[in-house]
Fold these 2 entries.
Entry 1:
Amino acid sequence: MNPIEATFERLRRSRRTALMPFLTLGYPDRDSALSLVPAIVNAGADMVELGIPFSDPLADGATIQAASQRALENGMTLRRCLDQATILRRQGITVPFILMGYYNPLLQFGIQSLASEAAAAGINGFIIPDLPPEEAGLVGRAFEDEALDLIFLLAPTADESRIRIVAGYSHGFVYLVSLVGVTGARNTLSLDLMDFVKRVRALTDKPLAVGFGISTPEQAGLVGGVADGVIVGSALVKEIGTSPKPETAAAAFVAALRAELDREA
Amino acid sequence: MTQSQKSTLFSNGPYYGPYGGRFIPEILIPAVEELEAAYDEARSDSAFQTSLHNLLTAYAGRPTPLTPARRLSAALGGAQIYLKREDLAHTGAHKINNALGQALLAKRMGKHRIVAETGAGQHGVATATACALLGLDCIIYMGTTDIERQKLNVLRMELLGAEVRGVDAGSRTLKDAINEAIRDWVTNVTTTYYLLGSALGPHPYPRIVRDFQRVIGVEARRQILEAESRLPNLLIACVGGGSNAIGLFHPFLEDADVRMIGVEAGGTGVESGRHAARFATSGRSAHVQSRVGVLHGTQTYVLQDADGQIALTHSISAGLDYAAVGPEHAWLQEIHRTTYTYATDDEALEALQRLAALEGIIPALESAHAVAEAIKQAPQLSPDDLIIINISGRGDKDMHTVAEVLGL
C-alpha cells in the first residue's frame, strides 16, 4: 500500500481527519521549506503538499500567484524542489509528500526522469491542476512504474458520470475542490460543499480530501466532519508571508487547525 | 489527394498530430464539453449559419475586398501582390469574424456574461462590439503594458459598454490577460462564456476560431479566381496565436501548389532574446528557447526557459506578443504544409511606411510583419506569380507607437 493510502487508512481507524497543509516551495526564501516542513509536521500535519512554482498558475488566486512569483525570483526550480524533498527525508520527516505543480515544467523536466527522480527523492504523489485524466496517459504510466500516486481534482460542477471517471483514475485520494473558483482564502464555505462531498462519497470508496478556500480552524473542522482530509493552502501561505517568524507562525496555525479537527473527531 | 493525405491535413480536434488537447483545470471540463456540443449543433443548424452570414454581410461589411497592390508590386519588381483587406471589416480587423460567431453561440447557449482577453485590443474591441450588438455583458482583460500602448482601443471598448480590467502580472501583456480571463471563467463558469480570440486554448477553441475565420480564405480564393482565373502561388499572414493566418490558409490547404508563410514577431532580433518567434527559434540554445510544451490548455510550441517557465516575449505589435502559437500551425509546420519565418520590429515599421506611401493603406503593426515578408519574397518571384498578403487589421491603433518610435 502506498504511504498516502496507508496514512488515510491509519487515520480512518482512529477516526481522525487527515490534515494536509500546502506550502509553495522557495517561499518566502529559497530554502524556507527545510525549516517550515519540520515545523508543520511537528504541529500535526499528516501529509504535506509542496507547490512547485510556475510562471502562469492559472488555477491559483492572488496569494499563491504572488508566492510562486517570489519563489521563482528566489531561484526555485523543479530540480531544487526534489533536492529539498531529499534533504527533508534525510532529516527524518516521514509523512507523505505530495508535489503540486503545473504541467509544463514537469513535461520539460521529462516525465520518465521526473518519475524516477521524484520517487528517489521520497515523493509519494503528484497533483497537476492542468492535467485532467484525458491528457494524463503518459504521466499515469510513468508514475505507476514508480508507485507514485497521481491525484486528480474534482469540481462541484461535475455530474455523476464525471465523478465516476475522475474518482476512478485518481490514486491515493480524490481532491475535491470546495468551490467554483481559483485557490484563495475565503470568509465562508460554499453552501453546496456538504452536498458535493456526499454526492462523491456515494460513488467511490477512495479517501476524499477537500481543498480551495479553507481558511480557518472552524472551517477546517466543518469540512473534517464530512471529508477524510482537509487541505489548507492560501491561508497558510499568507500566514507565512506576513510573519517575521514564518516557522513559528506556520506551526501555530497548523496546530490550531489540528486542534479543531481533533475536537470535531 | 488521397484519403490519408487528407486526414493528415485536416483535423477538427482535439488533436492536430501531437498538438492541441485540453490541458485545463478539471472545473472547466464540463464547460468545454458543453461548448463543443453546442458548437456542433450550431454548425449544422442553417438558422444559426444564416444569422451569422447576415451579421457578417449587413453589419461587418463582408466580403472584404481583395485589392491589387499595383504600385507596391511594381516597386518590388517581382510577383503581383494582392491584399486581403480585413482592415476594412467593421472594427478594423479580422477579429470581428470570430467575435460575432462566438457571441451568437454564447447567446444560443443562454450565457449572457462574456469574458475575453485582448493583446492589441482588436479582439477586445471586436468582442465589445459583438456584445453591444447582441445585448451581452462584456468584461475584457488586458495587460497594463498593452493598455498603455493601445489607449485608443481601451477607449473604444469602454464606449462600447465593456468593462476593461487591467492585468498587472507577469509581462502585463496577452499571456497574463489570458491567465486572468481563465481565472474569471473558472470562477463564473456556470454563467460565463469565455470568448477566446485566437486559434489557441483548449479544444474546441482552436477549431471554433479557425472555422469562424475561414471566411477570409474562402472569400480570397473566390476573389483571386475571379480576378486572375488561377490560384495564388503564395499566401502570407502574420502569426501571433495564428487566427488570421489559419483563416486565410485553411481553405487552400488542399491546393498543393499554393505555398503559405506565417510571419512571427522577430522583435529586436531573435538573437536578442526579445521576440515572439516560436518556430524560428525552435532548437536554438538561447536563454529563451522554443520547445513543445503546454500553455493555456494546449500543447504546442512555447517560448520558455530551460525550467519550463513561460518566457516574457517582446514585439512592437501587441497582437503578436505571445509565447505560444496555435496548435494547428504547429502541426501544419511539422508536415511541411506551411512554413514560418519572422520579421523584426524595424522591418515591420519599414513595411508599414512602405505600404502607406505606395498604396494609401496603413496596416496594423501585426499585418505589417506579413508585408515585410512579402517585400522579401516578391522580388525573387516572376511577374506571373501571385501573392496574397492578409492585411489582418488597420494601423490607426498603432499611430501612438509608430509616432514614438519614429520620433514624429
Note: The radius of gyration of chain A is 17 Å.
Entry 2:
Amino acid sequence: MPLTERLTHLKEAVRRGDHRQHRQPGAPMLAAEFDALGLTWMQRQARLITAMCEAEQVVILPDERIVFTRTLPTVPPVWREEAWARLTAGRTLHELGPTSNICADWGMVLSQGLLGRREVALATRQRCADQPETVEFIDSALETIDAVLALAERYADAARDLGREDIAGALAHLPAHPPRTFHEALQFLRLVHAVVWLGGHYHVGLGRFDQYMWPYLENDLAAGRLDHAAAEELLAEFFVSLNKDSDLYPGVQQGDNGQTLTVGGVTPMGKSGVNELTLMVLRVAHDVSMIDPKINLRIAPDTDLDLLCLASELTEKGLGFPQYSNDDVVIPGLVAHGYTLEDARNYTVAACWEFIVPGKGMDVVNIGAVSFPSAADTAIREGLQAGESFTAIMERVRHDVRLQVNRLVDAYSNLLLPPAPYYSALMDGCLETGRDLSQGLTYNNFGIHGACSANGADALAAVHKLVLEGKTVAPERLLTALETDFADDDVLRMVLQEEGPKVGTNDPQADDILIALFDMLADACEQIEDNGRGGIVRPGTGSAMYYIWLARDHENMREPAVGTTADGRKAGTPFSANLAPAPGVRVPGPISVFQSFSKIDYHRIVNGGPITIELSSTVFRNPDAIRKVAMLVRTFAQLGCQQLQVNSLNAETLCEAQLQPELHQDLIVRVWGWSGYFCELSPEYQEHVIRRHQYQLG
Amino acid sequence: MTTGLVFDIKEFAVHDGPGIRTTVFLKGCPLNCAWCHSPEGKDRAPQIMHTLRGDRTVGKAYTPEALAAYLNSQIPILTANEGGVTFSGGEPLMQAAFIHATLDRLDPVHVLLDTSGFADGPVFAQLVRRFDLVYFDLKLMDPVTHLAHTGVSNAPILDNLRRLSASRVPFVIRVPLVPTITDTNENLSAIARYLHGLPGLVRVDLLPYNPLAGAKYPMLGMAYPLHELEHRSVTLQPEIFSDKGIQVQCH
C-alpha cells in the first residue's frame, strides 16, 4: 500500500532535512558548571539529561501527529578533559564510553508510565534511606524522570498554544501515565527513546516492538478506535520520525546506528508471538523504505510461508533487512549459556546481530574480534618452516586463538562503564534495587566474534590439501610466495584459488576446518569463568568492519592484521564478511552456503553474526519468485543455521561495485537466462545492467 | 566410464522450473544460435575464459557418481520446496548417456530437461521419458531462416516435438524473442498454429531477448554476431498464443 499523501510529505521533508532548520548551533557546555557544583559522576549524568531536556526547543510541525524533533546537535561532555583523563587512566572504555547497544524494557516502561517508575524509585529510596550510594542513584534517576516530564509538559503547552489539542491532550497525559491508545504508545516511545540518545547513549534499540505494542493496537482495533489503514499510517509516521536524527547518531557511517527493531518469534511462555502488528511492521517498513528502523524477524523452521513472503517483499526493497534469526537455534544456545528459558525466549537483536534480553542484559556484546586469518597465517608460516604436520599446525592455531581471546578479555577486565541513571530507570530491577545499570544487570556477558572465518579456513584447507596431503605445492614455494605477495608466482596463486577447498561450497575438508576454528574459539571463551563482571564470554560469527580492517590495518586496533594469505589472497584484499564464502570464491549458490555454515555448533557459538547472501533484485520479479525467496529463508531455518541476512542488489550497489570491484567480487546479476558475476562483465555490459536495474527500480 | 562436462551449476535457479531448483549446465551444443547468451556452452571441450578477474577454465568433468552425490545431498531440500533438479546446457542431449547414468544414481526428485530438441530421435525419446517436465525451445518455424540463424535444420526438432507430445511427458515451449528474427508476427503465429491442440503442452514461455546476451563472447575470443540488435526492443504479443487458448507466460 502506498503511503498516504500526508506521510509522503513527512517522509520527503525528513529526506530533504527540512527539520534541521530548527537545530540549535550547539548544546550547552556543562562540565565547568558541574565542577563548580562539585557534582559526582552519577549526578553529572542526571544533570546532563536535565540540561539537555531544558535546552531542547519545542518543534511541532504542522503535519505531524507524533512529535519530537531533536534540536540539540551534540551531547556535551560531563567532565573537563583533564578530569576525564584522570578518571579513565588505566581503564578500558567500550568504544565511545557511554552505555550502548543494550535494550530497555520498553513494555514495562509503557505499562508503568514514568510516574509509575517514579513510585518504584521513591519506595526504594525510603527503604534504603541509610545507604548514601543508593540514595544518590535514586535521586539522580528521579531527576531524569522529572526532566523528561517537564519536557513533555512544554510540548503540551506549545501544542495548546498552536491549537493542536490532540497533541496537547496526549502530552498532558504522557509519558507520566501509561498510554491509552496505540497512537499514545507511539508518542510515548518516540519521546522517551529520543531522550536516551540525548543522554549520549547510542545504538539504542527498540526491542520486541510487536510484543509490547500489540496490546495497545489490539484494544484500539477491538474498540473500533482505529482501523488497519489508520494504524498503519501512525506506524509509518513513527518509523519516519526515527529517521529524523540519523545524522546526529554516532557510527562508522550514517545509517550504522543500531536503531533496530525485532518482531516475530515466541513469547516468554513459548507460544507463537506473531500477531497483526508483526505483519504490519513488515508492510509499513516496506512502504516507508527508509534506513530506520532496521527490522529483525525471528523465525523457526515451521514459520508460515506467507509471513516469509511479506518479509521477502521487504528484502526486495534493497534495504538489507529484515535480518532473520532462527529461534530453534538461538534459544537453546542462550539457555546453554546461563539464560533462563523465559529470558532466552524473550531475546531481541542488538545493533547488529547479537542476542540480548530487553531490560535484563548489560552485556557488552562486541568487545572485539579474533582474527582467524591471522591465527591461521601465523600457524601456517611457523608450522611449515618447522616442517610440522597439519595437526601440529592446527595446535598452533588453537594456541593463537586462545591468546587473542585472553588479550581482549584482559583489556576489558578494566572496563569502565559510566553511570546511566536515566537508562537505568528503563531497565528491570535498577530502580527496584537501587543499583545503576553500570553495576550490572541480570546478564553481564561479553561477546567476541570470530572474524573472517571463511578465509582462515580456506588458507588452512589449501595447506592441508595441496602442501601436506597432496604434496603438489612445496612448503618452501608457498612460504616464498607468502613473503613476496605472489610477485613471481601467480601460477601458485591461481592453484590455491582454484584447487584449494573452499568454505561455502559444502566441501567437507574446508568445512571441517571451519568447524574446528569455531570450536577453538568456543574452547577459549569457555575457559574464561568470569569476565570480571560476573559474566561469561560469548563467541560469535560476525565480522563487522574487520573484513576490511584486518586486511588493511587500523589505528589502535587490538586485533592483528595480516598480509598475503595461503588461500591465494593478495595482501590488502578484503576478507569475507560475517558468514560468507571468501571474496572471489565461486560457489554454486545459497544451498551449498547454508550447508557449509549449518555445520557450526551454534549451541556453543551464540553471539550471532549472519550468513550473508546477495540476490539480484531481478530474482524478485514476480510473486512466484518472491515465494521461492521465502522458501529459501525457511530452508535456512530448517537446516539449523542461526542468522541470515539477504541483500537484494540495487543500482546503487552496482555502481559502487563498478568503482570498487574488489569489494563486490561475489555480486551476482541476472543477465538473461543466466546469472553472472557482475565484476566479470566488461564495463559496457556493467552499464547495461545498471541501467536495467535503475529502470526496474524506478 | 561415462564422464560429463559441466560448464556451470546454479543453485536457487528461480527461473528454471517450479520450486527451488538446482540447474546443471552441460557443455556442448549442436546449434549455433546467433543470439545465444551462453557461448561457453557451445563447445564440447573445456575452454579458457578471460574475465576481468583473470583466466578461468570453463568446463569441469564429472563422473555420474560425483554429480549425483552432490545433487543427492540437496534433494531433501529441493523436494521440501516444491522443486528439483534441472538439466540444461548447452544441449544436454549431447551427453545423454551421462544424464542417464546420473539419473540412475539420483534419489527420487522432480527432474526437468531444458532442451533445444535437436537430437537423434530414439536418443531423445529414451531420455525425455525419464523426466517429469521438459522445457523445449522453439525458435523459428521457417526451415530456411532456422538454418540461417541456428546452423541446423528444424526438421529433427519438430520431429522430436511430436515424439515429446506422444511421450505424455508434460512440456513447456520456450520461445526466445529476438527482434526481427524470431519476434515477428509471421513466426509467432506459425508457432502458435503448430502448437494448437498439441497434447502435453502446459504453456508457452516468451523470453525477451536481452542486449546483454553478448557479454561473454569477448571473454572467449569470440565475436558476437548480433550487435546491431542491442538497442532494439521486443514486441510482446502474448495474445498470438492466448487467442488460440494456449496459456502463455512472459518473462
Note: The first strand of chain B starts at residue 4 and ends at 11.
